[in-house]
Structure prediction request, 1755 residues.
Amino acid sequence: GQSNQPAQTKKDVTINLLAQNHPWTNAIQPFIPDFEKQTGIKVNMQILTEQQTRDKSLMTLQAKSPDIDVWMSLKSFEGLAYYKAGFYEPLDKYLNDPKLTPKEYNVADFMKGPFTGEKIDNKLVGIPIIVEGPVVFYRKDVFQQYNISVPKNMDELLEAAKTIQEKSNGEIYGMATRGLPQAIPYTFGAFLHNMGLEWMDASGKPNFDKPEAIKAIDMYATLTSKYGPPGVVNNTFYQSSALFAQGKAAMEYESSNELSTITNPQNSRVVGKIGVFSLPPGPGGNHPTVLQWGVSISAFSKNKEAAWEFIRWATSPEMQRKLAEKGIASPRSSVWDNAEFKKTLEEPVKQEWAAALRIVMDNGNPEVGPPVTKQAEARKMIGTAIDKVILGTATAQEAASEIQQKLLEVLK
Amino acid sequence: MRKKDYILTYLQYFILILLFIGPVLWMILSSLKSNLDITAYPPILFFQPTFNNYTELFKIYPFAKYIINSFIIAGGSTLLGLILGVPAAYAIARYRLHSIAFFTLISRMAPGVLFLIPWYLIASKLEITGNNFLDYIMLILTHAVITLPLIIWLMISYFEEIPIDLEESALIDGCGRWRIFFQIALPLSLPGIAVSVILSFIFSWNYFLFALTLANNSTMPLTVIAFNFIGEGATNWGGLMAAATIISLPALLLTLFAQRLLIKGLTAGAVKG
Amino acid sequence: MTRMSITGKDGALQPHPSPPMNDTETFWGLLKKFRVPIMMVSPAAIFTVIMILFPILYSAYLSLVKWTPGSEDAPFVGLANYIRMFQDPTFWLALGITLKLFLVCLFFETIIGIYLGILLSREVPGQKIFQALILLPSIIASVAIGMMWILIYDPTLGVANYFLKSFGLKQLVWLADPDMVLAAIAIIDIWEWSPFMALIITGGMRALPTDPFEAAVIDGASRWQIFKYVTLPLLRPVIMVAILLRSVDLIRFFDTIYIMTKGGPNDASTTLNVYSYLQGFSYMDMSYGSAIMLFLLALVMLFSLIISALRRKAVS
Amino acid sequence: MAKVELRGITKIFNGTVAVRKTDLEICDGEFMVLVGPSGCGKTTTLRMVAGLEMPSDGMILIGEKDVTYAEPKNRDIAMVFQSYALYPHMTVYENMAFHLKIKKMDKKEIDERVQNAAALLGLSNYLARYPKQLSGGQRQRVALGRAIVRQPQVFLMDEPLSNLDAKLRVQTRAELIKLHQKLKTTFIYVTHDQTEAMTMGTRIVVMKDGKIQQVGTPAEIYNHPANLFVATFIGSPAMNLLEGTLTRETDHLLRFCGNGISVQFPNTDLKIDNNSKVLLGIRPENMNIYPVENNPNFNDSCLRCMVEVVEHIGSEAILHTRTEHQEYMIIKIPGHAKIPAVGAQIQAQIFYGKTHLFDADSGNKLCTRSYGAVENC
Amino acid sequence: MAKVELRGITKIFNGTVAVRKTDLEICDGEFMVLVGPSGCGKTTTLRMVAGLEMPSDGMILIGEKDVTYAEPKNRDIAMVFQSYALYPHMTVYENMAFHLKIKKMDKKEIDERVQNAAALLGLSNYLARYPKQLSGGQRQRVALGRAIVRQPQVFLMDEPLSNLDAKLRVQTRAELIKLHQKLKTTFIYVTHDQTEAMTMGTRIVVMKDGKIQQVGTPAEIYNHPANLFVATFIGSPAMNLLEGTLTRETDHLLRFCGNGISVQFPNTDLKIDNNSKVLLGIRPENMNIYPVENNPNFNDSCLRCMVEVVEHIGSEAILHTRTEHQEYMIIKIPGHAKIPAVGAQIQAQIFYGKTHLFDADSGNKLCTRSYGAVENC
Ligand SMILES: Nc1ncnc2c1ncn2[C@@H]1O[C@H](COP(=O)(O)OP(=O)(O)OP(=O)(O)O)[C@@H](O)[C@H]1O
Ligand SMILES: Nc1ncnc2c1ncn2[C@@H]1O[C@H](COP(=O)(O)OP(=O)(O)OP(=O)(O)O)[C@@H](O)[C@H]1O
Ligand SMILES: [Mg+2]
Ligand SMILES: [Mg+2]
Prediction:
């Protein structure tokens, strides 16, 4: 129903969309035929896992192949490297061209955090599609049983986990969260930030020589190793959600996206017993990691205008609202204020979820890992060091200095 | 075979089935469970079976298309591997050209990712990836890199087993080397062909790395689909298991069929001494 | 009994009956003489050259430059990547893990493969079905296998620990224990690929002449003695092929690890191939990744050379 | 050193009957020779005794023990395969030593036995070779050697000398006889060589189409063949047969007429129709020849023949002749006798005391013993 | 239908000399028989003619054409392998029809030829069988059948009848002779059967250790053996040898002394030292025997022997005897003669006109023709 005169001229155009198996993808898929009907542009959608998507995009773009027009890209991860490589088509000119972007699009509606997250060097390289951040899902019934209240600070969080673990005789784990090295920074980041630390200080030096960093590591390791499930070092969202959904864990500190998994009666035994809170503040305040996914256009695309048309459609306020109703945390503020959307949040768990997510969006720190080009390497390295503490082969002190030293190497 | 042997054999079958097929059965059972039951603890054997995973699978994915793609790629590369590999294996076995055998194996020795970028570069330069037909050809060629050395090496030892007397006999009967190859060596190495077909088909069928990057949406084979169940937000265990079950079926059927050729004692009665 | 014929010095079949080779033979003469084998071998050889030459050269090129995503012409850095490799402790760790996995898996897969192969070559009703079923672990796509075993190995929810618990044994954390993870992965690999070995070996069994077995029975050999003195030596060439094909895959161990542990915990399951992939793709350092890959290729070649030389000895 | 007994043994290969309801008792220490035309079931019989083939019906006993379904290795037999069945991956030495090695015999003893057997068979120079590097006869000797290093209960040998030259064969034959005398082991020996059968066997079994035709000592089989088949199968060149009719002349005399011969046989017990069709069997050596012109004993018991082919085999000559009635007749005469030329007319005088009468239809022998003919002249 | 010529052919298998500098000319249409002890190189020679084995040295011509290194298929030869080498995946029919099919012969003609050959070899009932379902002799016949359906330039047959029973062998032998007469094709035929060699061959080649010992017609080989080896190899039982010395008595006479015999031989040309060691060869059939007590012709050219073993082979008897000087002596007498008992003392009268003299060291024959002995008595 939107104005799409330019598109009418592009009949028989096919654009290739490379997407991940992700809630957003699953949510938007059913609407794509609408888009195709409206515009006559055919969308060829290829869905892969996160790593496969990254491999494929790297290879395709490296070969300067036009095989990808639009793809889902995680700016906090590969953004810098891809930007430097010139893989992204800068989007400012599309946004600023009224012929390509009508006013209804309402750019200003995007929340600042996610939107600036899509900018590198002050150039817009993508449009955000979903916001997420780690929140704590918890079992209201268990908290009640053991007489625990929602933790107000990090120490209480640990205390709560400890109580559950001990009182249930280890039948129920206190906390299920990430232990897989590559995945740790996402959850660990908030621990660090809540201690009042960024990944690096203002001069660009890693912050792991600070005692607060050691404290953060120690806290994370204690929480996961003592009050978490065995084998946590391999865990990421699959395992955590499975444990929580089977009622084996009282808390799950995971991406806000997991809500749909654990509230789906198909997957979960604990539906109706779930509450959500944001990770409590530490001495340095409350700075959970915030993460946005965005869609970008390949610099080598041969159908850039059609690609932009798709992006514009997918991120339009109307579409965003439709997706939000399916549980996609929208980067547009208007969606959150939308009455129809609010109606879908009637369930208490969803309200709590929205509230927690709000905290994430408001206070969130967009750096999932240290802001370096070698993002993956740095994250893996941090995770590996923390795992050593979890496994008991190193102290927090040793891990911190290892991270510090290796980060310095990576920075070289 | 004597009675005692039968009993002993079946006893071993039984234990092996438990060990080797147990996990597979678990997978198949899981494909009939809801995700909730799949991760249930303690694990449950008896449950309300559901075909949801399967029906959803067929609802979401154009399975027929993917199966056809898989057949084109795995079948094509197996066939190509046979056409290129069987004569080569014969020559290698009979003329002792071991260095060539070794050379062809290099393509199997190299890590698959080593090929990815260069091939992709070529494919995109030649604009292959956009064209379905060329894309199939490209996929068949790349998969033949997996099947060819497998077939060559498997076949070498079968050809070596054939008594040379038979080929000499054919020489005397006026056969050329090619005819000997086709009419004597080939029929007598049927068990080898069967093993080659089974294994190279399975390898090609299950190989996803090349297709992941080289295939486009309409030439994508079935196995790549399996990945679609693993993802951020939720892993659809039931769907994955159902897909894995379905993916395995054609290869299983092929195996059942091809092992008819695994005939024992083909050369019995041929020579004395 | 086979009798070598039209024999050259090493007992190889000569392509065409022809006078003993002498130095004056021209290139065209040789070509004509070896016409048929050349025709048989060259399609496969040419195909292989075409398919692998460019990738290997390209990787070699990559390993000698400093590659960054998107760069047009990367600066030449000589052997820097290789020097880095030999100084990288993770590389040595990965090499050790690779060899450890290779040896353990190959050992068990060979033994179980031979056992299964021989069991399968017994002709009893139902053998065919059993053979197809037992091959299932090799048939199923490796993604599914990896994911399924993640479920099975789950320390809290998995069947593996459930069994251990039911038998009153100590429960394990399997994949999350750096001391355990290789064993856990080896178990999967052995489970997955022993049937592959078995199929090759059954096929080989079926191609064997039946006479020597009857002779051995008459000579009073027990099952085990027949196996040891007749079956095994006669099967040796086939077994070596199975070992060769499996080794080539094993040294490049990747799929299962990548799906299940991504090399963890604590790099305890990082094989060379996983490491080179991580470097090349995850860390986007194609140059270093290529250097490791080429090293890996050289390693595989070395092992293959040894095994194929052993096989050649077994055949002659 | 055991008795071997077959009771009602039958073997059917999907449809083909290879051995049919066979009963046979081979005594302890006996050297039993099996003969019969190609495809008559000799090998199959041996293989059943060895346990390589299960009989479709019947029972096999070795040393009173029912072994019908026993494992070959529990039967303690040695066998020489018609197809040799050598181990291709073992040297000649290893091939021969295999059984002994399995029995964990002392290394020195093994070596001694193998060396002895090899010397006996002329294989001493080939011990380190592989079967594929041997000639046909050498391979066969290895197969034989593999059996004779053993001391089993029963030796089974399937044409073990067929690919050896005459001289070696005579030698080896003698060695086998010695071996038999020394070990007193039961031998079951398949051969198609008449000389071997006649000289080696303590008894001979003649088989045809899977059925035993006659069992007896060599002399019995040669001199008193049980039926036409045995008569013609044993003896080389084969027995000559003349068609004719048999009529009872008196209580004591029968008269055979045919091919221009008319001759009386003394006989009292044979019940026969007049003019029944019969065959008169005469071995080639049981005749004398004379030039037609000067046979002093000529009469109507003599046959008139024309010489068609003359074969000289050194010590003797074989005449292929044809009677006046165009019947084919082979006559064997000593090599030093005067040998007629091809085309010559001769008269053959038959030693009627060594002839045999068979029913022309059934092939059964009409009397159980050889005849003393009353010659007419 | 071609002449086959070997010129200076040598074959060495990594170190083992199988055939040594052999020259041989086989005329067009000849039936040449190769005989020799096991392992003497017969098969190797055939295989070189067939083109399956390359000579290490020398030259092979078929029909005047140098084929030393030609492809087997361009030589137009048919061969029966000693090891049969049947196609296991083809039925008997297909095995036999294979060559004809390759030559794109008319289906009907193929069928006719195969059916004929099968009938000839008694295989008609087995045409649909696979080799593994056949008995040893049946397999051998298939191998033979595969050759005789063809009409090649040269037939090569490597012991094609070794696994057949006597009767079938005689029949098949006759058929092969007929085939040879009909097709007039060159045959090269390996056999270890004396009878076959003597009756079938137009000429015989005797080999030993890869070298040709003598080439000649059967009669020549038997009556005029070129050396001790040929003399003892041909003939069964083998020629008897008596050790002794040879001395020139006059220009015309030599005297042989040994074993209690002393006998003169007329000879003019042989140059010999006095008392040279020689061997006197006597074929078993070239003796008469007498009881010791009543030999009318007894003198010192007669041998006194004791009978140790008597073998009856139907038509004849073989006496194994020992001379007074403990030399082993075989005497063959007709079956109808009076046969002495074991242990009897007999006198053997030697037909000196058919004896042979060999140098004891080299084994060479001392004269080129047989001797007319002047008997002493
Ligand atoms: N491949 C080989 N390697 C080594 N020696 C061999 C080979 N083939 C044959 N010989 C030897 O060459 C010699 C001649 O062998 P050949 O097969 O020609 O003998 P033959 O006369 O056919 O004997 P037989 O009558 O036993 O078949 C034998 O001593 C044999 O051992
Ligand atoms: N596996 C089989 N399937 C069908 N028929 C068979 C099989 N083996 C043997 N026969 C048949 O059984 C019969 C007896 O075979 P056997 O081998 O016992 O003969 P044989 O007396 O040893 O003959 P030969 O002297 O030719 O070796 C033959 O007619 C043969 O064709
Ligand atoms: Mg037989
Ligand atoms: Mg030979």
